[in-house]
Amino acid sequence: MQSLSQSRVASVLTIVVGAWLLLSPLAISITGAALVNILIVGGVMAVAGLVQLFWTNTFPSWVTALAAIWLFIAAFAFTVSTAAAWNQAIFAVVAFILATWDGVEISEVQREHHAGA
Question: 102 near 11, Cβ under 8 Å?
Fold first, then answer.
């Protein structure tokens, strides 16, 4: 079985992205529904990354990918500053790439495990 090092790195980076989203309203002015949205999405991503560290399953990667898609859409759906929109769009793309990278390795490990069983 593989060492899951790629998954561990992706999971830690996903936690960092989630933490940044939770803290970004301190650096970039975000208010109202956009603030609630970024806090929820950031929390979901951070928790999904943390869960992925301890659970060899693709479910947390799917959750992160869906949250990233929503974050990207929300960057343009809510009325926010240009800086806030760019922040959300960039980190949505980063989170989606991390979720995909993580999910691919987890899928490979599960496939090897089932093939060897």
Answer: yes
pLDDT tops 70 at residue 2: no
**What pLDDT score does 12 carry?**
92
Count CB neighbours of 32 within 10 A: 10
DSSP letter assigned to residue 53: H
Cα–chain center distance at 55: 16
| Calpha distance 79→86 (Å, rounded) | 12
SS3 content of the chain, % helix, strand, coil (to 5): 85, 0, 15
- Tokens (6 digits) for 112: 């090897």
Query: Cβ–Cβ contacts within 10 Å for residue 63, how many?
Result: 18
CB 65 within 8 Å of CB 100 = yes
Q: Can you tell me whether residue 90 is helix, strand or coil?
A: helix
- Measured distance CA(68)–CA(35) in Å, rounded: 16
Residue 70 identity (one-letter amino acid): W
